[in-house]
Amino acid sequence: MLRFMNDGDFRLQPIGFVRSRIASRDQAPCQGDEGAPDAWIEILAPFVSGLLGLAPGAELLIFTWLHRAERQTLQVRPRRRADAPLTGVFATRSPDRPNPIGLHRATLVEIDGNRLRVDPLEAIDGTPVVDIKPLLRTIEER
Amino acid sequence: MLRFMNDGDFRLQPIGFVRSRIASRDQAPCQGDEGAPDAWIEILAPFVSGLLGLAPGAELLIFTWLHRAERQTLQVRPRRRADAPLTGVFATRSPDRPNPIGLHRATLVEIDGNRLRVDPLEAIDGTPVVDIKPLLRTIEER
Fold first, then answer.
1. Which residues on B lie below 8 Å from A139 (Cβ)?
2. pLDDT value at position B141?
3. Which of A37, A75, B15, B85 is surrounded by the fewest CB atoms within 10 Å?
C-alpha cells in the first residue's frame, strides 16, 4: 500500500500536546461548539519557531491525533445514537476511523511562551497535536 | 516524544490516492479555489465500506499526505513570494511543515465504485489520501 514513500516518511510526529480539563472521551462533546472548554496547547521546543506570526484573535484549525480512537472502525452510528443508521466513517466526524486525525476550529486567545490558549477545544487532556493551520475564510467558510 | 503511544500507532495508512491532471508541485495552485481542476480519488479496497452514506453534492474535507513536502521547514515566505516576511509554518498553509497534512475542501461530484470525483482538488497526481470528513457548516463555516 505504501507505494510512494517509505514507512518513516508516513509517521506523524507530535508538535505538542493538549492540556485540558477534559479527562476522558465520555466527557468530550462531539464538537467544539457543543460546550467544549478552552484548553492550552504546549508546543514542543523543536517546533516553537513555527509559531512566528501567530497572534491572539487568529482563527485556527488544529489537527490532533485522537490517540484513544479505534482504527479498525469503518462504519458507525453517528453521534453515539443507537437508533441512527450505520454510516461509513468518511461520511461522519467519528473519532474512530483508519487515520484518527481530529480537526478542531478554535480561536487563539493567548500566547505564553511555547503555550497557546485556544477556545474551544473538544480534545481530551494529553491528546497529541500534529498540525496547526490558519483558517482560510475564502475556502473553509465559502 | 512519543509519550502516549508506540510508533506503529502513529503511522498513517493511505486510504486511497489522488488521480489528477496536476503532475508536479509547480503546476499546483496554492489553494483549490485558485484554478485547481477536478480529480478522482481511488479508495483502496479495505476502506470502501467507510464510504457508506456519501452522496454526490456532499461538501467534503479531504485530508492528504503531501508526499513531496519538506518536513524540516519551520518558517517560510508565504505564497512563494520572495518579498513576504518570514512566517512560521503554523501561521501559513505551506505544504512544507513537520507533518505535511493537506486539507482540501471539495464537492463530491460523482461516485463510481471505489472512485470519488471531487472538485476542486489542488493535490498532485499520486498524492496519498489519509482521511475524508464531511464539512460541518456550523463550525468550519460559522
1. 31-33, 105
2. 59
3. B85
> Is there a contact between B74 and A128 if contact means CB atoms under 8 Å apart?
no
* Fold exhibited by the domain A13-137: Elongation Factor Tu (Ef-tu); domain 3 (2.40.30)
In this prediction the ipTM stands at: 0.90
pLDDT tens-digit series, residues B53-82: 999 999 999 999 999 999 999 999 987 788
CB pairs under 8 A between A and B: 180
Pairwise CB contact (< 8 Å): B10 & A11: yes
Distances (CA, A) of B51 to A35, B30, B44: 29, 28, 11
| Domain residue spans of chain B | 12-69+103-140
Three-state secondary structure along B58-82?
CEEEEEEECCCCCCCCCEECHHHCC
The reported pTM is 0.91
Q: What CATH homologous superfamily does B12-69+103-140 map to? A: YaeB-like (2.40.30.70)
Query: Min CA distance, A112 vs chain B (Å)?
Result: 16
pLDDT, tens only, A3-55 = 444 444 789 999 999 999 999 888 888 777 888 899 999 999 999 999 999 99
Cβ <8 Å between B91 and A51: yes
Which tens digit of pLDDT belongs to each residue from B83-112?
Answer: 999 999 999 999 999 999 999 999 999 999
B123 backbone dihedrals φ, ψ, rounded to 5°? -95, 150
CB A4 within 8 A of CB B126: yes
**E strand residue ranges, B1-47:** 16-19, 39-43
